[in-house]
Amino acid sequence: MSDGLYTPLPFASASWEDIGMDFILELPRTTRGFYSIFRVMDRFSKITHFISCHKVDDANKISRVFFREMVRLHGLPKSIVSNRDSIFVGHFFRTLFEKLGTK
After folding, report:
1. How far is CA 11 from the centre of its chain?
2. How far out from the chain centre does Cα 15 lie?
3. What's the distance, CA 93 to chain centroid?
4. Where residue 69 falls among pLDDT bands split at 50, 70, 90?
5. What is d(CA 55, CA 57) in angstroms, rounded to the nearest whole number?
6. How many separate helices (H) and strands (E) can be counted in the chain?
7. Tens of pLDDT, residues 81-95
8. How far is Cα 12 from Cα 43, in angstroms, rounded to an integer?
9. Mean of pLDDT over the chain
10. What value does the mean pLDDT take over residues 30-57?
């Protein structure tokens, strides 16, 4: 395989074990001040959660929202796919694992 080629993701085999997350940015501001959406999708069923957020929310805030909204409903997934940069994803996982008590 050469650099720059995409590798297809393996097929998901059960609900909420493999998820994708990304953001929808620059939307009209709501009355509560939100103008972006944090989207979390189950790769098996394609069921999606849309969570209000701000474009400037950092990985720490997003991991708290993820823990509060997603982990309580579906537990921890086996894999998470994101199109965010490695710095954001690394900080997201570090903060999430701290919430779980993992060192």
Report:
1. 18
2. 15
3. 10
4. very high
5. 6
6. 3, 4
7. 988 888 888 898 898
8. 6
9. 90
10. 94
Q: What pTM, to 2 d.p., does this model score?
A: 0.83
Amino acid at position 96, single letter? L
Crossing angle of helices 86-99 and 59-66, rounded to 10°: 50
The token duo for 11 is 């097929």
Cα separations in angstroms, 15 against 21, 66, 73, 76, 95? 15, 17, 12, 11, 24
- Range scoring the smallest mean pLDDT among 24-28, 33-37, 95-99: 95-99
Strands of 2-95 (E only): list them: 18-24, 36-42, 48-53, 79-82
**Burial class for 32, CB neighbours closer than 10 Å (0-12, 13-18, 19+):** exposed
Contacts of 97 (CB under 8 A, 6+ apart): 103
The vertex-89 CA angle with 94 and 11, nearest 5°, equals 110
d(CA 84, CA 62): 12
Integer-rounded Cα Rg, in Å, for the chain is 15
